[in-house]
Design goal:
Largest sheet: 3 strands, mixed
Number of helices: 4
Number of strands: 3
Amino acid sequence: MFRTDSIYSLTDFQRNARSHLERLKESGQPEILTINGQAEVVVQNATAYQDMVDKLDVIEGVRRGLESMKRGEGRSVDTFFEDFERKHAITR
């Protein structure tokens, strides 16, 4: 959820780009930029963006795994560990 103190006009961003970029880098929080009072653009620093993309990738992987499980695909955890132990010559 966006905080109301992170909403700025595009004009303000253009006029004060340096302070916006410093704030974005320090806080890691995105800012919403408005044009004619309407939210149009979200900006954030590259590190925060990459963190968000990484989290979305993990969520997508979990979603695909759950869908696969619902379709009856995959293998049981017991079978996985048996194969893993055999592959890596692990004995219990």
